[in-house]
Design brief:
It contains no helices and eleven strands. Strands 2-1-3-10-5-8 form a six-stranded mixed sheet, with no helix packed on it. A five-stranded antiparallel sheet has the order 7-6-9-4-11, with no helix packed on it. It has a single domain, classed as Jelly Rolls. About 0% of the residues lie in helices and about 50% in strands. By secondary structure, the chain is mainly β. The protein is globular.
């Protein structure tokens, strides 16, 4: 058995081909992301990975649409999105496959 603390992970990412991680694998990346209302991420896309975002709490804007707790957003390779937390928000993000350096800011 192996254990880890989410607080020790980088930006909430705890599964993937990076360190530190709870599970080192190139097959996927998984992270729990906590945002304060008003936080933003620049528009970007992935060439290789499909990115699945599950909104656990709060409201956010992605792809010019408002999403709320319980929504699941699946971005295919090439789909461009920016991100803004309208309220404090928590997401679970899964990227398949795990692909380091696959984030392209536009």
């Amino acid at each position: 058995m192996k254990t880890a603390k989410l607080g020790d992970m980088v930006k909430g990412w705890f599964v993937g081909g990076f360190l530190p991680t709870a599970l080192n694998t190139d097959s996927c990346e998984v992270g729990i992301k906590n945002y304060k209302g008003g936080e933003k991420e620049a528009a970007h896309y992935h060439k290789i990975a499909t990115e699945i975002t599950v909104l656990l709490s709060g409201s956010v804007i992605m792809r010019d649409q408002v999403w709320n707790a319980g929504d699941i957003i699946v971005l295919e390779p090439g789909d461009v999105t920016a991100f803004q937390a309208l309220t404090d928000a928590v997401t679970v993000v899964v990227k398949v496959p795990g692909a380091l350096n696959d984030k392209y800011v536009v």
